[in-house]
Write a structure and sequence with these properties.
- By secondary structure, the chain is an alpha/beta fold.
- It folds into three domains: 224 residues, Vaccinia Virus protein VP39 (Rossmann fold, 3-Layer(aba) Sandwich), CATH 3.40.50.150; 30 residues; 50 residues, no CATH class.
- Helices cover 39% and strands 15% of the residues.
- Strand 4, helix 6 and strand 5 form a beta-alpha-beta unit.
- It starts with 7 loop residues before the first helix and ends in a 13-residue tail after the last helix.
- The N terminus is likely disordered.
- Bound molecules: S-adenosylmethionine.
């Protein structure tokens, strides 16, 4: 259930069709989904205590929404080397995307969202999270992204924002890169023919046609556009656009479909499945990355990029986490002991110091280090360090 606070309740009660019916008001001045209003709504006013997972209720939960609505649409574009997620919020889709790539960059205008994602995905050294300005992606290298993903966010982005992001796509997409973008189609409808209070805060200046044309002007091609009746049966309020570079392996004439059954058939089907079959387990990792940890070289590259972005503390912690993961503490402890026993106690101490820094909870290493330091003291006792096992 939604738990918005304050004024956004009025404009956002229909962010998602969770069963609330629209209601006309006479005196409320509905805000437009400008960049400024998006920033204050999601950055300050929205109650994120459910991480946005409440928006998946109609599907029977986040897992069922991912596996029945999202994954079937992007399955042909993953796994991907490098994925960019625009506007992840509190990581509802990041959780799944992280298993489908070697590197995941997430960018949101809301600082709270990025802070939350950094904490939520702190074990995932291959995720880099950035606060963005809502229109540009300077933290993303040119020609580097294999898949851009954005869902349930850019529906609130007006034409100026969409045009700026499309311009960035033309710079950052790899030669066979592809973007899956969920955006508004409200501009296709004449103002006055709909109740502006009942369109889920969709951007009135954006349509499928506008995105297709803007993309074409930037050397990109729309290869698929699915217009979707979001939260209703008659108005194709939204569109899922797949965009690629002209000439890429995914390039083809645009395939445009009108999905009027999204809210009445597709979502209820997912919900029915959810009442019969359990969701995927959070501890199970899917995709190519399953069971795999990021390699040290990749973590090193990430850390250097973080340094370039002026974030030395996060660079240090990325490398620290990776080295901690990469080292077998038992083997390093035994190496230190054997090094000491073969006469090089200075080197043994250095190795143990590094181990204790990375694994302060490793008791044998801490005891061996203490013993060696003790022996080094002039009046040292005779405790001899032991191989751990
Ligand atoms: C409704 S939430 C959805 C979050 C997430 N996609 C999900 O489905 O759970 C919208 C998110 O989009 C972000 N956002 C809105 N406009 C944006 C823009 N122009 N650039 C980046 N993020 C934006 C907001 O800060 C917020 O986190």
């Amino acid at each position: 259930m939604h738990r918005p606070r304050g004024p956004p309740l009025e404009r956002l009660r229909h962010h998602h069709g969770s069963g609330l019916k629209g209601r006309r008001r006479l005196s409320i001045n509905l805000s437009v989904p400008s960049l400024e209003n998006n920033t204050s709504t999601w950055g300050k006013e929205w109650d994120w205590s459910q991480r946005g997972e409440e928006w998946s209720a109609a599907w029977g939960g986040v897992s069922h929404q991912w596996w029945t609505t999202l994954f079937p649409r992007i399955q042909g574009y993953v796994p991907a080397g490098r994925i960019l997620e625009i506007a992840p919020g509190y990581g509802r889709w990041t959780h799944f995307l992280r298993d489908l790539c070697d590197e995941l960059i997430i960018v949101d205008i809301a600082e709270n969202a990025i802070e939350y994602c950094r904490e939520r995905f702190r074990e995932d050294a291959h995720i880099r999270a950035h606060v963005g300005d809502g229109i540009s992606l300077p933290m993303v290298t040119s020609d580097s992204i294999d898949l851009v993903f954005s869902f349930d966010s850019l529906v609130h982005a007006e034409a100026d924002v969409m045009r700026r992001y499309l311009g960035e796509l033309s710079r950052i997409l790899a030669s066979d890169g592809v973007a899956f973008l969920h955006h508004s189609n409200l501009e296709a409808y004449e103002p006055g023919t709909y109740d502006p209070d009942n369109v889920h805060w969709r951007a009135p200046t954006v349509s499928a046609a506008l995105v297709e044309q803007a993309a074409a002007g930037m050397g990109l091609t729309c290869v698929s556009q699915e217009k979707v009746a979001w939260g209703n049966e008659t108005m194709l309020l939204d569109c899922f656009s797949v965009i690629t570079r002209a000439g890429s392996q995914f390039d083809r004439p645009n395939v445009v479909v009108e999905n009027f059954g999204f809210a009445t058939q597709e979502i209820p089907m997912s919900h029915r499945l959810s009442t019969q079959y359990p969701p995927s387990r959070p501890e199970i990792r899917f995709g190519d990355r399953a069971g795999e940890t990021i390699n040290t070289r990749q973590a090193h590259a990430n850390a250097l990029e973080l340094l370039e972005c002026g974030e030395p503390e996060r660079a240090r912690s990325t490398l620290h986490d990776q080295m901690r993961r990469a080292i077998d503490p038992e083997a390093l402890n035994d190496l230190a002991v054997l090094t000491t026993q073969s006469g090089d106690s200075e080197a043994g101490i250095d190795l143990l110091r590094a181990l204790v820094r990375l694994h302060p909870d490793h008791r044998a290493a801490a005891e061996n280090l203490a013993a060696l330091l003790d022996i080094q003291r002039p009046s040292g006792c005779s405790t001899v360090p032991n191989v751990a096992r």
